[in-house]
Design a protein that fits this description.
Elements (H helix, E strand, L loop, with lengths): L11 H6 L5 H16 L3 H14 L4 H13 L3 H12 L6 H13 L3 H13 L5 H13 L5 H11 L4 H13 L3 H14 L4 H13 L3 H14 L4 H12 L4 H11 L1
Helix pairs in contact: 2-3, 3-4, 4-5, 4-6, 5-6, 6-7, 6-8, 7-8, 8-9, 8-10, 10-11, 10-12, 11-12, 12-13, 12-14, 13-14
Length: 256
């Protein structure tokens, strides 16, 4: 089922039906969306960005945020369609151009994806996301220049954990698990209090066959966020993985 039923389109009729709200309401929902993104709750972030547009249909950050969340949710075709709708209003918005580039590249159209990434740079898009998105597109094209883009993003973001975490997620998507782990660990070094970073670290370790270490990472995520179902699932997967010390210990205990 399409997610567009939960999103808001900006046309003249809908804009007239939405009452004017205080800037504080718009800012509140934008902050909620950004917090949801930072906690890995992409569905919630998608809904919060839609709520922002109810208060201000001309908020470019909210339009861009929805495209980014659709990409994170693996809804690449809908991300492309939503980007097209948004670009009708903001044809020169760098992060929106960059996000469409990612959607296109992940759909397999890497030439068009690179063209939109180039356009984002040409519009003086010098933000961490523009460079993360460019690295994403270049990874889809299997170009070594991608690493320069990721390092550029981290430089602009002053090595913020969120940027490193997002870069790790990009590498994980392309099955580059060693590099994904590198950036996850970089995010941990910047801020070890985020459950999503421990969760990402565990996923990378598990993908590399490091089951026992992964289990510890998932346990750290669970301690920071007891309600995190992904952490609980990760613990179970790591415990059952081939070569898991916990699994072998449990078997020895059962046999004894």
């Amino acid at each position: 089922m399409s997610r567009f039923g939960n999103l808001e389109f900006d046309d003249d009729s809908s804009a007239q039906l939405v009452p004017r709200q205080a800037h504080s309401d718009e800012a509140e929902h934008l902050e909620k969306a950004q917090n949801a993104l930072a906690s890995g709750r992409f569905e919630l972030a998608l809904r919060c960005y839609a709520k922002v547009l109810e208060f201000n249909p001309r908020n470019a950050a909210a339009w861009t945020g929805q495209v980014r969340m659709l990409v994170e949710l693996g809804e690449f075709d809908e991300a492309r369609l939503w980007a097209d709708k948004a670009l009708e209003q903001f044809p020169r918005e760098p992060e929106l151009l960059a996000a469409k580039g990612v959607a296109l590249a992940r759909l397999g159209d890497t030439a068009a994806g690179l063209a939109f990434s180039d356009a984002a740079i040409e519009e003086r898009g010098d933000t961490p996301y523009v460079w993360v998105a460019r690295g994403d597109v270049l990874l889809a094209r299997e170009e070594k220049r991608a690493q320069y883009c990721f390092e550029k993003a981290l430089q602009i973001a002053a090595n913020h954990w969120l940027c490193a975490w997002l870069i790790s997620r990009v590498h994980y998507y392309y099955s580059q698990f060693a590099l994904a782990l590198k950036y996850a660990q970089q995010a941990l070094a910047a801020n070890a209090t985020q459950a999503v970073v421990w969760l990402q670290t565990g996923n990378c370790q598990l993908a590399l066959g490091l089951a026992d270490i992964a289990r510890n990472s998932f346990e750290q995520a669970r301690q920071l966020d007891p309600a995190c179902m992904e952490a609980r699932q990760g613990i179970a997967q790591a415990s059952q993985a081939p070569g898991s010390g916990f699994k072998n210990w449990w078997r020895r205990l059962f046999r004894s």
